[in-house]
Amino acid sequence: MDNLDDEYNFYWETKRFFENEELDNWALDEALSSYYDSSSPEGATTSNAAKNIVMERNRRKKLNERLYALRSVVPNITKMDKASIIKDAIDYIQELQDQERRIEVEISELETGRRDRPLVNEVVDDVMTVPVSRPSKKKRVIKSFDGGNDMRSPSIDVLELRVSEVGEKTSVITITCNKKADTMVKLCEAFESLHLKVVAANITSFSGRLLKTLFVEIDENESAQLKERIELAIAELDAPHSPMSF
């Protein structure tokens, strides 16, 4: 019920926001049109004024689209005006950066413990077998294992992966997966292999799942293939000869 109320409030707040923008654009058009009257001696400038009106309208439309995209990825928006949206987005990015630093410390500790864990070689010696009418034989059995099973489940069990553009060179990546012992480390390894320019990152744990959010800077020509690159990097984690699978 709370989700329905939130969606209802979000819809009407966003609707009012764009209605106000349309009124502003209408007022701008009226003001410029009355100033540049074609019947006045300055009628020669009407064409330039019309171009300026179109350019200003397009600029506002593009700005509104980016603000709407930004509003959709920032969880806590206090007000629907432009200044509040931008301020809340900055606060959210700073919060993500703080969480990123804490997570990097945790990952460093996990990786240090993982490197210190030696490969266990279990040697079972002196296994005696006594067949009938044959002399006894001694067999040497060597088992090598690292705590895993032959049939391993995927390192990262992805439930949802989304890539959204929020600017000319900025995209937001959100990935939801089941929480396992080394999922957090594997996620970081996968994204590090892509060599992305990460602006901010965040990992949230809830109900046995992990939600990772990243703000990255990327060229427009690379943005279309970004989701496929992420899926390929995750698949490479479980490749038999992949260095990330060990």
TrEMBL record:
Q: Name one Pfam family in it.
A: bHLH-TF_ACT-like_plant
The segment(s) forming the BHLH domain are: 47-96
SMART domains for this protein: HLH
Q: Keywords, A to Z?
A: Coiled coil, DNA-binding, Nucleus, Transcription, Transcription regulation
**Keyword Calcium among UniProt keywords:** no
Location relative to the cell: Nucleus
Q: Which residues form a coiled coil?
A: 86-113
Main localisation: nucleus
Annotated Gene Ontology cellular component terms: nucleus
The record's annotation in InterPro entries points to:
ACT-like_dom_sf, bHLH-TF_ACT-like_plant, bHLH_dom, HLH_DNA-bd_sf, TF_AMS/ICE1/BHLH6-like
Return the Gene3D superfamilies for the record.
Answer: Helix-loop-helix DNA-binding domain
What would be an example GO MF term here? sequence-specific DNA binding
Q: Does the keyword Nucleus apply?
A: yes
Q: Give the multimer and partner information.
A: Homodimer.
Family assignment from sequence similarity? Belongs to the bHLH protein family.
- Name by which UniProt lists this protein: Transcription factor bHLH35
Q: Supply the source organism for this entry.
A: Acorus calamus (Sweet flag)
What's the encoding gene here?
Answer: BHLH35
